[in-house]
Amino acid sequence: MNLRKVLIVNPFGIGDVLFTTAVINALNRDIPGIKIGYLCNTRAAEILKDNPHVDHIFIYDRDEFETLKKKSFFSWVKKGMDFIHEIKDKRFDAALDFSLNSQYGFFCWLAGIKNRVGFDYKGRGILLTERIGFSGYSDKHVVEYYGDILHHLGLELKDSLPSLYVKAKDLSKIENLLAQEGVSGIDFLIGIIPGGGLSWGQDAYLKHWPAKNFAILADKFIENYQAKIIIMGDFKEAGIAKDVLGHMRHKAIDFSGRTSIAELSALISKMNLVIANDGGPLHMANALGLKTVSIFGPVDDKVYGPYPRGAKHLVVKNDIYCRPCYKNFRYPECNNNHKCLEDITVDEVYEGVNNLISVA
Fold it and tell me: pLDDT by residue (tens digit) across 171-180?
């Protein structure tokens, strides 16, 4: 199969798209001169636009298309055809489809991409030319599942890892903003992300460790390490940040809702350590090579946690009998008062961070 021009398809959130950067790095390593396109949503595009190995980005937001369809069927058809022609013009040799949805296989077929490789989940790979059997993410990390597609093509992940790139202009802006907040180059900075990204929508709270716990934890690091606490998150999570601040005895710096995604990448890169719930920002910190402490509740950290696991990444979890309960992209109603998160103590997380700080 010719792989000189490859389209990667992943319409999911920031974390999932960052997982595919391990595939991008492997392709770039093993196929000199390869050209890579990427089909994703608007938010995820922000973490790809500065990636030197991604040559073209095609943005598809399903909700935007559906809204247009309700307003004008003909405008919807025109926008859709323009989108397909934009992909077709690049003459891709192959598509690696991580979407688990037949809709995207249809797009690739319409765009004239001869070779379409991906997972056949619930028979949705009907328009793929090469289908890989798949029943869900369960026994290994998502990155390793993505590596299975490479293996199918005769390539390997090897030591290829997720990566995220920060532009100098974004870094300069963040450094200026931090300086305005009284942060100097010698300060010990701990980033706290009490939300977890937007991919779970209105159910995101199910992944959140209590805000009061984050507040107590932050105060302990201010008192014992003279650390400066930087609270981060999307503008839709500003309320969570205010909740944390409202429970704190000491001052923290609130950056929630103040940055674009590219600027958030730059802000995270300035931290000495990041403490976060399961979610996209955690994987941004991981891809930037930072030390992370992550708090996992209903989601299986072996599948969706930092990759690769190692001394720089601590996962704090409460392995009660019903955890993890998020399986095959479904979260059942909790009958155990969310104990998997609620019963994780501040002392557990604090002790873990203490140990991580000493890791080189």
Answer: 999 999 999 9
